[in-house]
Design goal:
Elements lengths: L1 H5 L4 E4 L2 E5 L7 E5 L8 E3 L3 E7 L2 E6 L5 E6 L4 E6 L3 E7 L2 E6 L5 E5 L5 E5 L5 E5 L2 E6 L2 E6 L6 E4 L6 E4 L2 E6 L5 E6 L5 E14 L4 E5 L5 E5 L6 E5 L4 E6 L2 E6 L2 E6 L6 E3 L5 E3 L1
Antiparallel strand pairs: 1-2, 2-3, 3-4, 5-6, 6-7, 7-8, 9-10, 10-11, 11-12, 13-14, 14-15, 15-16, 17-18, 18-19, 19-20, 20-21, 21-22, 22-23, 24-25, 25-26, 26-27, 27-28
């Protein structure tokens, strides 16, 4: 899921339904019933970013509210403003919501009961993720690691990147000083692998493979095996905002959403009535 949040967290599965944010016409966010493809979707006026599910609740940053932290009761269809601060790359972990303050670029932790909002990392943070109880943060001085509370900070790489995803024990990122070339850092061996020929425009993962829109080939989509090496182009369309949900890859082309099965086939355009149409 961390890969999807890095891409904006704009598409999410909730049960057998799909939540999807319109970033072309900015008409809102749609709740599409996949079991009833001809049914009209539920429409929310807000533009939901960085969606995180927690049972019947959804946490997200609403662009129409200045990127404030909000909560949606999915069953009751009731929205609630939790924190009126610009939240970026929101991540829920247990009873905490981690986020980057969009103006300060500091990492915070907000408890879901609203009792605490704590600054964890008091330096510029571009991106972060959590893995095995530790925080990994991309900063202008490189990648740092700390405990969940921000303590015991240590530098693990001098590489400068604006985004991080985890695939097993491998930290994958775009090296900002090397054309955004895809670079893999093995946390167990500390080995670094540069994937020449893959420059990252957008990136996500299914936990086994890395999916990347490659700047060097018109932002077409590649699948990369981080363990055994090698890559293959799986879609020739120009893509951005890559999201992996179960066995499907969702992406934008011209800011219109498309779906591609990870097992192959053609990409399908998604309409907000829940129907798919082949390209």
């Amino acid at each position: 899921m961390n890969g999807n949040l890095l891409s904006g967290g704009l598409v999410m599965k909730a049960g057998e339904s799909l939540l999807i944010t319109d970033i072309k016409n900015y008409t809102g966010t749609y709740f599409v019933d996949l079991d009833h493809p001809h049914a009209a979707p539920i429409h929310y006026e807000g533009l939901f970013w960085f969606m995180n599910e927690a049972g019947n609740f959804l946490y997200y940053s609403d662009q129409l509210k200045g990127n404030a932290l909000c909560k949606l009761d999915i069953e009751q269809q009731k929205e609630e403003l939790l924190l009126d601060k610009p939240c970026y790359q929101l991540l829920r972990h247990e009873d905490c919501l981690y986020y980057i303050h969009e103006e300060e670029h500091r990492l915070y932790c907000y408890t879901t009961n609203g009792k605490r909002n704590t600054r964890l990392i008091d330096e510029h943070v571009d991106s972060f993720l959590m893995y095995e109880g530790l925080l990994y943060c991309a900063t202008p001085r490189g990648i740092i690691r700390s405990t969940e509370s921000g303590g015991q900070r240590e530098s693990i790489s001098g590489m400068v990147t604006t985004g991080l995803i985890m695939v097993g024990d491998i930290l994958a990122c775009a090296d900002k000083k090397n054309r955004h070339c895809l670079t893999l850092l093995d946390l167990k061996t500390n080995d670094t692998t540069v994937m020449n020929g893959i420059d990252v425009a957008s990136i996500s993962t299914d936990g086994r493979y890395i999916y990347c829109a490659n700047r060097l080939n018109g932002n077409s989509i590649y699948r990369i095996d981080p363990v055994h090496g090698g890559s293959i182009r799986i879609c020739g369309m120009s893509a951005d905002y890559l999201h992996v949900l179960e066995n499907d890859l969702y992406f934008c082309n011209g800011r219109e959403w498309h779906r591609l099965s990870l097992f192959g086939g053609e990409a399908e355009t998604i309409s907000y009535t829940g129907r798919y149409s082949h390209e």
